[in-house]
């Protein structure tokens, strides 16, 4: 069994992560002598960070009360069922 709130009032946010310092790195001859993937002086894209997600679950008091009520109901149903 599970409890799921279909219409939560809590709202989170999604933000774009700031890019790392220096958007691209320049390779040197020493960096490429073993890998052979990029030529010296070629621009290499830095890793792009993922989004920053703050879900803020149960931040609204109504959502917390609904979740607690649902869990209590689920507990009562589970106790009443004989296996």
Features:
83 residues, 2 domains, two-stranded antiparallel sheet, 29% helix, 14% strand, elongated
Question: What is the element layout, followed by pairings?
Answer:
Layout: E1 13-15, E2 24-26, H1 29-32, E3 43-45, E4 52-54, H2 61-80
Antiparallel strand pairs: 1-4, 2-3
Any overview of this molecule?
This protein has helices at residues 29-32, 61-80; strands at residues 13-15, 24-26, 43-45, 52-54. It is of the alpha+beta class. The protein folds into 2 domains: 1-16 and 51-83, no CATH class; 18-50, no CATH class. Strands 1-4 form a two-stranded antiparallel ribbon. The protein is elongated and about 70 Å long. The two termini are 15 Å apart.
Radius of gyration: 25 Å
Number of helices: 2
Taken in chain order, the helices and strands follow as EEHEEH
- Report the biggest beta sheet as strand number plus sense, adding barrel if it closes: 2 strands, antiparallel
Summarize the structure.
By secondary structure, the protein is of the alpha+beta class. The protein is built from two helices and four strands.
